Here is the input.
Amino acid sequence: MTRRHLLILGGTGEAAALARAALARFGETAVVSTALPAGTRRPGPIPGRVRIGGFADAAALATYLAAERVDCLIDATHPFSAAISAAARLACDRIGLPRLMLLRPPLRRHPLDRWIEVDSIEAAAAIVDRVGRRAWLAVGAGSIPPFARAEGVRFLVRLDEPPPQRLPLRFHQVEIGCGPFTLAEERHLLQRHAIDVLVCRAGGGAAGEAKLIAARELSLPVVMVRRPPPEPGRSVDTIDAALDWLGGDERRSAAWGRS
Here is the structure.
């Protein structure tokens, strides 16, 4: 029996859940591999094969897809992982491999939200010191350096694990914690650190919703970095829809996704 090979581009809770669901539905007919971003040091439990790094380059990814006889790819990366998503599109187009994007539903702005929307991390860094003096910086470790210019702001940075080196911020405090976090926890964090502005990205999904609700309840401004547009191609916004795509394409052909 031929086992069809699915590669999931991951690093998100949705990707890990998709790997579990794919193996549960397709069982012994599937090989499921998950690729995590370079620099991932403590990946959570993910069923199937796991690979770390090396997929931000389209040529390298195309070589891997061919060498590992991958039958289809699902891009379940973070909405701000634009470089990896672009590489996935180019690599799959190059070798004619079926590709699906699993996209988080976008954030919905509440009438009481005090969002200041900007188009980039750099734009957020340029205005944060005009909005507040004690900022919770919730933008991911890789997006912190531009905020070094805001020397008059005291930053709170929450990370999954201690950073390998000191962050490039003049005044900051690092708090270690792994989500998801409850609304009560996020409200307590904002109040305990006397935060007067939240800086975050419009990644969407349920995982980061609690901090936005807490900021809304406390009437705090939020500098919100807009989500970049997704890559062209077919997309779904639920794991069930992604599984249906796999199952439907499996019935139509000898390899996942090929019509």
Remarks:
- Residues 114-225 form a domain with the Rossmann fold fold (CATH 3.40.50).
- The longest strand covers residues 30-36.
- The chain has seven helices and twelve strands.
- The radius of gyration is 20 Å.
